[in-house]
Each structure stands twice: as C-alpha cells, then as structure tokens.
Amino acid sequence: MKPAPFQYHRARDVEGATALLAELSDEAKVIAGGQSLVAMMNFRLARPAHLVDIAGLRELDHLGVESDGGLRIGALTTHHTVETAPADRLGAGFAVIRDAMRWIGHLPIRTRGTVGGSIAHADSTAEWCLLAVLLDAEFVAQSPRGRRRLPAGEFFFGYYTTALEPDEILLEIVFPAPRRTRRSPSSPSVAETSPSSPPRSIWQPTARTSAAAGWLWAVSPRCRCVCPRRRPCWRPAARSGTARRRLPPPWTRRVTQAEAATTASTSSAL
Amino acid sequence: MNDTTGLGDDVQLITLDVNGSPYEVITAPRRTLVDVLRHDLRLTGTHVGCEHGICGACTVLVDGLPVRACLMFAAQAEGARITTVESLADSRTGELSDLQRAFTAHHGLQCGFCTPGFLMLAQGFLAERPEAAKEEIREVVAANLCRCTGYQTIVEAIDACATARRSQRPVGAEEDSCD
Ligand SMILES: Cc1cc2nc3c(=O)[nH]c(=O)nc-3n(C[C@H](O)[C@H](O)[C@H](O)COP(=O)(O)OP(=O)(O)OC[C@H]3O[C@@H](n4cnc5c(N)ncnc54)[C@H](O)[C@@H]3O)c2cc1C
Ligand code: FES
Ligand code: FES
C-alpha cells in the first residue's frame, strides 16, 4: 500500500527539530532511517500528518570510546556502521555489540536503520533494546526543556512504548565500561565473555540473563494505560504505530523464569 | 515539470542524482524512492513487491550501499548518489556487466522479477567486500526473496563474478570493475 499524505520537514539542527516537534505535538513523527516507520506508514498503521527528518543531522552520527572506557554511539549511527567499525573505535569489551549487528534484519536494512531509531521504536525483540538493557546503557535525549539522561532499565515501558516525550529526540546511547553486572555477580557479563566467543554465543547469556533478572516486557493486547489526556491509549497507539505514552506500573509485570525462557527462544524481530 | 504524481496532495520539488544524471521531480512527500524511480523517472528496472522491506525487489544503491527503495521517501534521497539496475549494462552498446553475465551463465534467474534487486544487492556488497567468501555471499543473499531459483544459482553467479574480479586485480582494491 501507499502511505497517507503528510508534510515533510527537514531538520537543520536538534533545537529546531525539537521546537517543531513541540509545536506540532501528536501530529508529528521523527524519521531517521525509516526502516520501521516507513513500513508502518506503507501499511497505514502509522499516519503522521508531519514527518521531521533528522537524518541530515550528521553530529548525531558518531561512535567512539570515552576516556573512562565507556562507549558513546550517536542516535543516527547505522547498524552497518557499528557492524563494520574498526576495533579501536568500538573499544575493548564491546565486540558483543558488533557481533549482534548481523542479526538485525539484513544488509540493506542495516545500511539505513539507526541505533536511535531502534531504541525509540522499542520493539522488544530488537537487538539494540536488549543490548542496552543487558549492558546497563543510558540514553541522552533532548527536548525544548533541555537534555536528560535515561537509564535503559527505566526507559522501556512495553512494546513500542518508552519514556520519550513526543517532542524529545534521542541524541546518543552511552554504554558504561564493561564490568561484572549487578544482576548476575556469579557469572561474567556478556561484554566480558563475548570478544573471543562466536557471535551466536550472545543468545545464551542473553536468554539466561533475562530469565535470571525475571524481567521481560509483557503486554496485554488492550492495555489500560492512560495517556496525558486521560484517554485510553490503545487506539492512538495502534494508529500512530509507535506509542510514546507513560504507562502505569501494572502494565509491566514480572514473569516467571519459564515464561522468560519461552519468550526469549521463540521471539523473532521485524 | 508537471505534477506527475496524480496524488492530489501537497507537492514539492526535489532533485535527485540517479545513475550520475541530475533529475528534478515535483512530487508528493509520501512518494517512496521506488515509486519516483518507476513512475516519475520511468526507470522501471527497479521492481516493487512487498513495500515493507521483506522481498528486496526494490533494492538500489544509495551512496554505494544497498538499500530498500520502498522504505525511503524520495525526499530523503536528495543529495545522495542513487544507482539503479539500469546503470549496470553499458548505456551505449547495451553490453551486460560482468555481474549480469555471471547471472546468465549460472542460471541465476528464471522469471527475473527478483533479479534487479539481487543484482544491486550483489553490486553494493561486492564493492564493499570484494574478498567475500561464498558463505558470506550466501548470508547476504538471504536479504532478498526469489520464488524460482532456489538461490543456489544466484550464490554461484555472485561467487563466480567475485572470483573473476579478484583474479583481474589485487584483493581489496577500491575501484569497482563492473562495467
Ligand atoms: C525487513 C526488516 C527486518 C528487520 N529486522 C530487524 C531485526 O531483526 N532486529 C531489529 O532490531 N530490528 C529489525 N528491523 C528494524 C530496524 O532495526 C530499524 O532500523 C529500526 O527499528 C528503526 O530504526 P530507523 O532509524 O529506521 O528508525 P525509523 O523507522 O526512522 O523510526 C522508528 C521510530 O523511532 C522514532 N525515532 C527514530 N529516531 C529517533 C530519534 N533519534 N529520537 C526520537 N525518536 C526517533 C521514529 O519517530 C519512529 O517512531 C527490521 C526492519 C525491517 C524492515
Ligand atoms: S518492495 Fe521493497 S523490499 Fe519488497
Ligand atoms: S527468478 Fe523468479 S523470483 Fe527470482
């Protein structure tokens, strides 16, 4: 199918883009690589009246290791850039991130799909969302009200639902220097085990760590969450594709180890 | 230029660089790159199947990398170098490129619907990874769907083209020798 009509805006800087998003409110969506949004618009699952194209903001396309050993990745960095990044840019202990890239769709998806788009889209089976949660990443977001840092553990509320406000743009994702995780002190972290392991090995620790944490997104098809306007949010969420509403705590429930293991082994990403 | 969209909504002027030629198109923002290539520029070599990134029939190169032309609005392609299947054969003599000849020699196509997508996928991939092993080619080819061939012949065609290119020049050379 073809997308519904919309107005196209090309952002020149982050400030201008967030101001425009604030002005247009729920009518507008950010577009980065378009690998999730355009597919949803083609199906008319998303029908934004305005698109704010941030792909030209090259300052958000970067990848590098900090002096403290942490890794900063700009929101507009493509999966392909990470996949092909030389070892010195990715830093020691982060090979698991590069190795995970080949599991994201296929080459022509990875050449355009971005890190920030994956995180903001918040498909619970997305590699970036898992990596961010498992490796305790933080996200930096900007709105007309300023910048804030959000820990990955508090960012995802459920399928396609995050703490991002409609006028907020994700600027970068920051991974701390690899260390033993708080969740599984007895076993080495994914980042520590990965560099010498074959790519496939990431799935074992991933599934086990999720199960051990007893944490997984769990969604009811018609949630009872409330949007800022106090309306049931499942309708606008279904229409606009990627919902960005705040959800009350009951929506995220703890799951049993058995459930977590089943979900981790059967899930597949689009 | 006239509004060739027939879409009746807001239109905008965009300039595109396709196969080295500049084009000005007045089109609606909701027009995807594959629709502009086919309907506005009449470059119908690029095919369209699923329109959600799965089949790969619409694969073209943007700044040298393979992308889905159905998952990109034409307006997003402004300022980029777009390369379609029409660029492969010699435009004056019509002589097919080495990659196209390899597809013919190895029976890498039957109905041919998927072929432009596979050709551009392979073209972009081999430019970046001229030393690619057959296993890598097999993995990359999984990006696109073919209903006819069973893929084996496509993998063999791309591998044969890569091997032939390697024997003509040192591995890792930047220059692309497709035509
Ligand atoms: C065939 C196919 C297979 C795929 N397979 C996988 C897979 O196996 N694993 C996987 O993880 N993903 C997969 N994807 C999705 C892919 O990873 C996308 O790249 C990603 O989900 C979205 O990134 P994008 O830059 O394309 O975002 P877009 O599609 O442009 O945007 C997606 C959403 O994020 C918002 N957004 C984008 N950037 C920002 C930003 N900087 N700040 C705030 N909001 C923003 C948009 O408003 C939109 O709501 C697949 C996609 C396709 C088409
Ligand atoms: S038409 Fe673009 S991937 Fe199928
Ligand atoms: S040759 Fe018919 S679909 Fe590939």
UniProtKB/TrEMBL annotation, chain A:
PROSITE patterns, A to Z: FAD_PCMH
Any one GO molecular function term: oxidoreductase activity
Gene3D superfamilies, per the entry: 3.30.465.10, Uridine Diphospho-n-acetylenolpyruvylglucosamine Reductase, domain 2
Compositional bias segments (type: Low complexity): 184-195, 260-270
Domain FAD-binding PCMH-type: 1-180
InterPro entries given in the database record: Diverse_Substr_Oxidored, FAD-bd_PCMH, FAD-bd_PCMH-like_sf, FAD-bd_PCMH_sub1, FAD-bd_PCMH_sub2, Mopterin_DH_FAD-bd
UniProt region (Disordered), positions on chain: 180-204, 238-270
Keywords for this protein: FAD, Flavoprotein, Oxidoreductase
Full protein name: FAD-binding PCMH-type domain-containing protein
Source organism (scientific name): Streptomyces violaceusniger
TrEMBL record, chain B:
Involved pathway(s): Alkaloid degradation; nicotine degradation
GO MF: 2 iron, 2 sulfur cluster binding; metal ion binding; oxidoreductase activity
Gene3D superfamilies assigned to the protein according to its UniProt record, in alphabetical order: 3.10.20.30, [2Fe-2S]-binding domain
SUPFAM superfamilies in the record: 2Fe-2S ferredoxin-like (SSF54292), CO dehydrogenase ISP C-domain like (SSF47741)
Assigned keywords, A-Z: 2Fe-2S, Iron, Iron-sulfur, Metal-binding, Oxidoreductase
Residues of the 2Fe-2S ferredoxin-type domain: 12-88
Family matches, as PROSITE patterns: 2FE2S_FER_1 (PS00197), 2FE2S_FER_2 (PS51085)
Coiled-coil residue windows: none
Pfam families documented for this protein: Fer2 (PF00111), Fer2_2 (PF01799)
Tree of life domain: Bacteria
CDD domains listed in its UniProt record: fer2 (cd00207)
Descriptive protein name: Oxidoreductase
Taxonomic source organism: Streptomyces violaceusniger
